[in-house]
């Protein structure tokens, strides 16, 4: 686009707009895509030294895309960032959070990137991720330090889409790509005060490189500051790609249209403990109870209930699948370059996953897949009586930087041990296992100013119901104007 007349007030108030709002300014010729890109780059330069959230910036590619003419879509002209993991795209190298995988150039575009690009987004770089996306924090040696939370830099921004969450929360872009194999969109959203939806299994494309990730438990998504941006991104990217091994249930109409009307009266189950009945942090319990009261005030029925299943059995199965999937990634790189990694090229956690994954028998892996599927069937029964399940995203506020650093030489102890991450994040991965959609919403902040995300899970295939409820809550208790100190 050329010839737009800059509205300096619009540029000054850049972070008062969500992605659709910025796109509307472009359509009205109040600002040009090039000027939005310049603003995003200036913000990146200002905040990244404090947050360590951005990598592989390629503004020249973004400028070339603008000069060539952007597609007309819901986000035309809006600056955008891809996660430094997956989302293969020509001209956007990745590290996958790893020194062993660093600076890989892609020879093809992933289907998810093709669909995002078609919305008119202007991609100018990538955001940090833990090595191979493993972990609820973003602390990878390849970036020379941890990614920090703009609300309090001594705390984590979450993982594995921690760089994306930090960048959006700090106002660099209003929307960024993420992916979620065990909470990796929802955990960063919770830590940084954003909206983070994990769609139904197979709702979004995985091709052409693969048909699924981690046995179908991993899926792409976005991090946003508004429900309508999430809905519009879903409208633009949903649907199976060529050769997909399975499809999500079809949806009638657009998500963006659906959120214009409130949901029907819902039966919402509220859980204020972890899935084994243990207490959670007082701030997380308060977040759930406040949100339940808000839902009740909006006319929904609230009941105290949670699904009954073998939590640790499911977590062991999930961890076996992740270990094998991680081992597969490392081994594929080994086979491609003809050498094994040096000790300093993999984090201890990933080195352990590689070795342990190679040693997991095929029968154990398939037994884990069976457990995953059995857990999904059992929890689906719970949702025959309840429309939604309300929990916190995490059992406590965002962890301090370093607490879950990838230095434990035992992959399974790091995840499942006494101080393992499953006790910090028990809620999110269950819905990667079941394949159900789930969303993190920024409806509570702790007394010391840290975001506490609340988590709603819905029936398989029912992103529409989740987004309608999210939009209703966003209207009842707006969060958009809350801003972190680092921005």
Mean pLDDT: 97
Q: Quick one: biggest sheet? A: 8 strands, mixed
The global form is globular
Strands, total number: 15
The name of the CATH topology is Amidase signature (AS) enzymes
* Architecture (CATH level 2) name: Alpha-Beta Complex
- Please write the CATH class name: Alpha Beta
**Structural class based on helices, strands and sheet pairing:** alpha+beta
- What is the CATH superfamily label? Amidase signature (AS) domain
Q: Stretches where pLDDT falls below 50 for ≥5 residues?
A: 1-5
Count of individual helical segments: 17
Count of distinct structural domains: 1
| Percent of sequence in beta strands | 5-15%
CA radius of gyration = 21 Å
Helix content: 25-40%
Report how far the terminal alpha carbons are from each other.
28 Å
**Adjacency order of strands in the biggest sheet:** 8-10-9-14-15-13-11-12
Short description:
The chain is α+β, with helices and mostly antiparallel strands and 487 residues long.
